[in-house]
Amino acid sequence: MTMRIGYGYDVHCLEKGRPLILGGVEVPHTKGLQGHSDADVLLHAISDALLGACALGDIGQHFPDTDEQYAGADSRNLLREVVAMVRARGYEVANIDATVVAEKPKLAPYVMRIRQNIADDLQVDRSQVSVKATTSEAMGFEGEERGMSARAVALLIQEKV
């Protein structure tokens, strides 16, 4: 069996007038994340972790913000495309471990739905997807509520035949 590990990181500014989408779930908040797509910082970090594990670059290379076809794109669709790339190379997702850093809102009520969305998109069991949320203790851009960030680690496996 071959195993590969990938790491992803993403960050977006917060702005009024946009919905806050995390893990494909609209989370009630006074601000949303700014970006060319739906700016789902969590799914972007996971996508980058998966791409990184296969040495396929990052989501900006595959879905550039200069391409109008991705304007307002649903990041769940982008994640599913990334999973297809990973599978085309013979790998399956063993697990994902991700953390969202945001001062507000509290994400605990949404984590199970977020995990299920991600598991569905990865075609794995929810037990293979960990999503955590933390604050930055009022420090930095996350603590000042100017933005959010996410980090993710992906473990991929390939059965030898």
From TrEMBL:
Pathway entry: Isoprenoid biosynthesis; isopentenyl diphosphate biosynthesis via DXP pathway; isopentenyl diphosphate from 1-deoxy-D-xylulose 5-phosphate: step 4/6
Binding of a divalent metal cation, residues = 10, 12, 44
Q: What's its catalytic activity? A: 4-CDP-2-C-methyl-D-erythritol 2-phosphate = 2-C-methyl-D-erythritol 2,4-cyclic diphosphate + CMP
Q: Which residues form the 2-C-methyl-D-erythritol 2,4-cyclodiphosphate synthase domain?
A: 3-156
Question: Can you cite a GO biological process for this protein?
Answer: isopentenyl diphosphate biosynthetic process, methylerythritol 4-phosphate pathway
Q: What class of enzyme is it?
A: lyase
The Enzyme Commission number assigned here is 4.6.1.12
- What name does the UniProt record give this protein? 2-C-methyl-D-erythritol 2,4-cyclodiphosphate synthase
Q: Which organism is it from?
A: Fodinibius sediminis
